[in-house]
């Protein structure tokens, strides 16, 4: 494809800009409705808060326009609107947070609510996390110009991911029965959020190289071909690690997320349903074996089976979540008019979806879930469009992790499955989760940019040499091999060689049709 032909491929950045401006308008309307309900007036804070969120999202748009101009135009607006809804709703919870006044919990007065600053309380901190996330997002796009460079150090990344996931078991602090956090003085981090990304990169690298072996079938059972016994070793190793993580940090959700990611990527790589059956059987069996030894796991299952058995203590949050979702109905109580703070202290984290469902109703919550659906589908689409197998598996795993984590969270607050302690991506309070999810978004945008980018187009603002023309248009090369006879030299063709560690991957020829404007 020539440079003239490449110019015909639209970047669609203006579509992304229009979607972002629409997202900012939605956030402003949401914030205005909250303040009118809770404060009785519109304060200057509404303009400052939404203005800062909008500036952060537009900065992200400029970074994509510079460093990944051919990326999918829906990814950034979807994640940005979800993050903005989270910031506005967490601040809305700050305005109605229950306070201790020397006795029972009381609601703050309108004057106290109006005095809360833009950067105060959890809502203000979430805004700061958003700004930091956009900075990290831009740094990733600037540093990683080709997603295939992520596969250059797979074993280091995989080992680092395992150590980060297991570190809270040794130096973590216990909160609500789980050891997910590490206290670093003024801040606390959740290493499993970043370990998830490192393990995804390692899984993609490993499965690209082993998928042909793992695709071999041995015997059929009920018409389904199952793999050979010796090929079960990788999935057994990951299953054992996930069980050890659940034992060490006492968190079912993190263990389920890690093992689910590997099994899903294994299925994407081999297209064999037998791996799904094996994975579900292994994880279910492991949980059943560990169940009698963990009181925290027993409590969560007991709450799931009958939350109304103790509605004022252990089952209080789940009961309030169900009541809130039921009282919200189709259209909700309205922004600021519900009682989502009744699920404190997890109203802005584990139960943020139920709070939004109470105030926005079934229609509003469905619209939020559609934003997640756009993010997952567009991520999968990026994996289909990219040319290399590593990018396909990486994008598929990233998109699956977002969808699977959302299913775990939504299933927990609606009593479909036991509560796992996982939080809604992009919306729940927490700096570690937000930073990790924006890095995940940057990885998806990088893969998407590679999938739609014409070969003749430069990568980012730095002009680099275009890749060589396709093999079909190149003259035949004759390679001389020392020590061979002259007659053998003319029959020797040039074979592509595998790059050694430290060298960039050679560009692969395009196998996708040209994108018409």
Automatic annotation (TrEMBL):
InterPro entries: FtsW/RodA. It holds the Pfam family FTSW_RODA_SPOVE. It is found in: Membrane. GO terms for molecular function: lipid-linked peptidoglycan transporter activity. Keywords: Cell shape, Membrane, Transmembrane, Transmembrane helix. GO terms for cellular component: cell division site; plasma membrane. Residues 498-510 have a biased composition (Pro residues). GO terms for biological process: cell division; regulation of cell shape. Residues 456-517 are annotated as: Disordered. The chain crosses the membrane at residues 17-40, 46-67, 74-93, 127-144, 156-175, 187-208, 229-246, 252-268, 275-294, 360-381, 393-414, 426-445. It is a multi-pass membrane protein. This is Cell elongation-specific peptidoglycan biosynthesis regulator RodA. It comes from Stackebrandtia endophytica.
């Amino acid at each position: 494809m020539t440079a003239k032909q490449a110019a015909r491929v639209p970047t669609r950045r203006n579509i992304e800009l229009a979607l972002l401006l629409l997202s900012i308008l939605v956030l402003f309307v949401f914030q205005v409705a909250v303040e009118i309900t809770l404060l009785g007036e519109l304060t200057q804070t509404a303009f400052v808060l939404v203005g800062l969120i909008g500036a952060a999202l537009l900065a992200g748009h400029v970074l994509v326009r510079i460093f990944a101009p051919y990326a999918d135009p829906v990814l950034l607006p979807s994640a940005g609107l979800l993050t903005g809804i989270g910031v506005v709703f967490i601040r809305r919870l700050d305005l109605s947070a229950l306070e201790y006044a020397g006795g029972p919990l009381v609601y703050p007065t309108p004057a106290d609510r109006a005095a809360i600053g833009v950067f105060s309380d959890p809502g203000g901190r979430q805004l700061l996390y958003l700004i930091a996330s956009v900075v990290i997002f831009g740094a990733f796009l600037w540093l990683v110009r080709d997603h295939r460079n992520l596969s250059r150090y797979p074993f280091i990344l995989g080992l680092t991911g395992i150590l980060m996931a297991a570190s809270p078991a040794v130096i973590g602090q216990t909160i609500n029965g789980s050891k997910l956090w590490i206290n670093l003085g003024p801040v606390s981090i959740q290493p499993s959020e970043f370990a998830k990304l490192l393990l995804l990169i390692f899984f993609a690298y490993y499965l690209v190289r082993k998928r042909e072996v793992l695709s071999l079938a041995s015997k059929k059972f009920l018409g389904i071909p199952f793999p050979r016994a010796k090929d079960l070793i990788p999935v057994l190793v990951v299953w054992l690690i996930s069980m050890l993580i659940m034992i060490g940090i006492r968190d079912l959700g993190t263990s389920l997320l890690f093992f689910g990611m590997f099994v899903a990527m294994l299925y994407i790589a081999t297209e064999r349903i037998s791996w799904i059956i094996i994975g579900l059987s292994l994880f279910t069996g492991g949980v059943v074996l560990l169940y009698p030894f963990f009181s925290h796991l027993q409590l969560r299952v007991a709450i799931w089976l009958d939350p109304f058995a103790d509605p004022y203590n252990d089952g209080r949050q789940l009961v309030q979540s169900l009541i809130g979702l039921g009282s919200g109905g189709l259209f909700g109580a309205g922004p600021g008019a519900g009682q989502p703070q009744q699920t404190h202290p997890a109203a802005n984290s584990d139960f943020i979806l139920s709070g939004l469902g109470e105030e926005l109703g079934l229609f509003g919550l469905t619209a939020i879930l559609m934003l997640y659906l756009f993010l997952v589908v567009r991520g999968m689409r990026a994996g289909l469009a990219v040319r290399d197998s590593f990018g396909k598996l990486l994008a598929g795993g990233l998109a699956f992790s977002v969808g699977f984590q959302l299913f775990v969270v939504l299933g927990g607050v609606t009593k479909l499955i036991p509560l796992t302690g996982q939080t809604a991506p992009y919306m729940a309070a927490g700096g570690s989760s937000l930073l990790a999810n924006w890095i995940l978004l940057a990885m998806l945008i990088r893969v998407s940019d590679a999938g739609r980018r014409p070969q003749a187009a430069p990568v980012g603002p730095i002009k680099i040499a275009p890749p060589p023309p396709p093999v079909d248009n190149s003259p035949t090369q004759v390679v001389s091999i020392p020590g061979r006879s002259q007659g053998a030299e003319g029959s020797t063709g040039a074979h592509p060689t595998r790059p050694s560690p430290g060298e960039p991957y050679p560009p692969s020829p395009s196998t996708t049709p040209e994108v018409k404007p």
